[in-house]
Amino acid sequence: MNQEKGFTLWFTGLSGAGKSTISKILEDELLKRGKKVEILDGDEVRENLSKGLGFSKEDRDINIKRIGYVAKLLARNGVAVITAAISPYRQVRDHIRNENKEFVEVYVNCSLYQCIQRDVKGLYKKALTGEIKQFTGVSDPYEEPLNPEVVVETHLETPQQSAAKIIEKLEQLNYL
Ligand SMILES: Nc1ncnc2c1ncn2[C@@H]1O[C@H](COP(=O)(O)OP(=O)(O)O)[C@@H](O)[C@H]1O
Ligand SMILES: [Mg+2]
Question: Candidates 21, 43, 83, 135: which one to mutate for ligand 1, based on the most atoms within 8 Å of Cβ?
Answer without folding.
Answer: 21
